[in-house]
């Protein structure tokens, strides 16, 4: 259950036997059913997670109760997740995180993560990298979505992040792009017909 997590960490650090033993002691396996919330708006995020399997969507709940898609987390890409604004501020979250598939995640409490950061320099390094990457991905996707047309952004997703198109339901891709599901379907057909994708 922890082997995939270990491989992900070992891309950036060498894990000592002591750190690995501590990670396995702290890590809690959680299972989420499709459409189950990992975090709801109004809750304080006090955990960090690694996705062993499955995909999740992060949404913003506006004043009308409508969910606006902000981003995605998938086991094959961006497998580390948290709601970083709530996590670091200790304030209630304006965002929600919901399972799009049945998921298995490894959960660590904030106090456990702080212990690991304070006591294992290698973990502090990888935690910093995970956190900074989370912000970088958020800003990059926001910039691309705002600067490109809907068609150009869809081509970008197909070419740079094909896993999204394979694993994320069209409903959420459309909401993320700010278009209707019907318009997304037309764009997909046009792109595939015109062979706008990288070979």
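^ Assign residues to that structure.
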């Amino acid at each position: 259950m922890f082997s995939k997590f270990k491989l992900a960490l070992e891309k950036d650090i060498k894990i000592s036997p002591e750190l690995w033993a501590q990670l396995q002691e702290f890590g809690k396996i959680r299972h989420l059913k499709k459409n189950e919330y990992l975090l709801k708006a109004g809750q304080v995020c006090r955990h960090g997670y690694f996705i062993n399997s499955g995909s999740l969507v992060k949404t913003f709940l506006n004043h009308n109760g409508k969910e606006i898609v902000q981003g995605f987390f998938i086991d094959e890409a961006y497998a580390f997740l948290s709601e970083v604004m709530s996590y670091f501020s200790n304030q209630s979250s304006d965002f929600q995180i919901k399972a799009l598939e049945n998921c298995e995640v490894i959960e660590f409490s904030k106090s456990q993560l702080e212990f690991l950061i304070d006591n294992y320099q290698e973990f502090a390094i990888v935690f910093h990298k995970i956190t900074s990457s989370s912000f970088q991905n958020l800003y990059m996707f926001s910039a691309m979505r705002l600067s490109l047309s809907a068609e150009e952004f869809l081509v970008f997703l197909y070419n740079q992040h094909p896993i999204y198109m394979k694993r994320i339901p069209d409903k959420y891709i459309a909401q993320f792009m700010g278009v209707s599901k019907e318009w997304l379907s037309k764009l997909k057909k046009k792109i595939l017909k015109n062979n706008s994708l990288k070979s």
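Residues 19 and 25 are 10 Å apart (CA to CA).
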